[in-house]
């Protein structure tokens, strides 16, 4: 059993016309050339020759994963007809139960996943996008082997630790609102200010403070409701042994479930429960991973329906529990179910707070993103590091105290406070 430290889970205003054009149900796309010389029409044609259940030339469903173990069960469910590379990303084209699919490995960071999603959307023109992968639990009722699907996605690294002893969301993810962009249902924190032009750049300064509604700050991205409700109907995921779910020697099994929750993307992983509490009281998340915000941003910016699917591999309530394989398999199982049960026409309506499962942190607390959450921080008591000579050293006592002196108001070279 892998220790909790260092594992995947914890080291780890819409233009409706544009939306209708993007989401038209029977997307009988003509010859749209994509990288490698294949066309969207050809995807379905090739599938039809090998799988007679494909009756129409539907646009594919895109699936992205962050790790090989997460991608493997998706590929195993596919009938792959072709692979092609775009800007270094490898895309597999084929079908799942007769439905055209494009699958990609996106990498384990937010930026890489965002680029993979954007390339898939811009080259293969999917009618929906799924992110199938793993995450760590952020709510006590969620266990290893459960699946959390994104009612909403938030960027938990967007934090501002304020001098008054509280933390706040730091504005949010800034998005340019234009034709085809989907932000309906998102939680927003306001707008940026007007931007400079060549005509006023010399005298611009900080610029005017009037809202520039073309640039909006988003604190929570709402996934596509129809995708979420479809995933929620996924049949039984099966069971996980209590030993696997807890990392302890124990008998019995638990039944795994699909939860509609809030997924938090963050490059900062938190294990001590008091610190987890401090973060979750700003962002009431139920699963935490590395890629969700970038994926959501790419899909929303292109007006494509989307959802993140996260199998739970570990939980801070049981620090020795970890099973990335079962988490990947369960996420892929839900992804396959969604692919198999989506109608030709996908409604662009967003998921809402009421769609979140009753056991989620947000439903229990009554909010997704707080305005402020007060906290306390103790002093640093010990530091371990690797020196230039390659040896590991530890800072404690007087040496650490000497460094700590910088973090006092009197350390400023222009005099003390007051």
Q: How many individual domains?
A: 2
Task: Classify the fold: give the CATH topology of the largest domain.
Answer: Rossmann fold
**Quick one: overall form?**
globular
| SSE-based structural type | alpha+beta
- Overall CATH architecture of the largest domain: 3-Layer(aba) Sandwich
Strand order of the largest sheet: 5-15-14-6-16
Mean pLDDT: 85
CATH class of the largest domain: Alpha Beta
Question: Helix tally?
Answer: 11
Largest sheet, strands/sense/barrel: 5 strands, mixed, barrel
Round the Cα radius of gyration to an integer and report it.
23 Å
Helix content, binned percent: 25-40%
Tell me the distance between the termini: 55 Å
**Relative strand content:** 25-35%
Task: Please describe what this structure looks like.
Helix 3 runs parallel beside helix 9 and helix 4 packs parallel to helix 8 (292-301). 25% of the residues lie in helices and 28% in strands. Strands 5-15-14-6-16 form a 5-stranded mixed beta barrel, surrounded by 5 helices. The longest helix has 18 residues, at 324-341. It folds into 2 domains: 16-374, Nucleoside phosphorylase domain (Rossmann fold), CATH 3.40.50.1580; 383-418, no CATH class. It is an alpha+beta fold and 418 residues long.
Sum this structure up briefly:
With 418 residues, the chain is α+β, with helices and mostly antiparallel strands.
